[in-house]
Amino acid sequence: MSRARQSMYPAPPSASHWTALEQCSYALQSSCVNVHEAVEVLHEATVDLPRLASIVQSRRMFDLVTEPDVFSAQRALANEMSPQIEELIGRAEDGLEGLKQRERALRAKDPFLLASR
Fold this sequence. Notes:
Number of domains: 2
Largest sheet: none
Structural class: mainly alpha
Shape: rod-shaped
Radius of gyration: 45 Å
Oligomer: single chain
Distance between the termini: 135 Å
Order of helices and strands: HHHH
Number of helices: 4
Strand content: under 5%
Number of strands: 0
């Protein structure tokens, strides 16, 4: 028959060993609680991060346009729109002149018509 294997510990663990092991267990449990609380704080601080990242990205997009580029775009837009605006102003002036001629014709037709109002 074979002999029983000899233990590497010469004697059973002492009471102080169990106390030290229990204190280590409590310290580990306390560390786990601290880590859990830190994770919760980190989550609360970063839960809005995707929205903030999109805001910052949008802000960067506007920061990429320089002031001279903005002025150049304004001038180009003004040059593009000015003929249309001038045409509309001319049409409005022509319409106003037509209304003035109509008013003169009506006054000539019956001078008392507009004076009674």
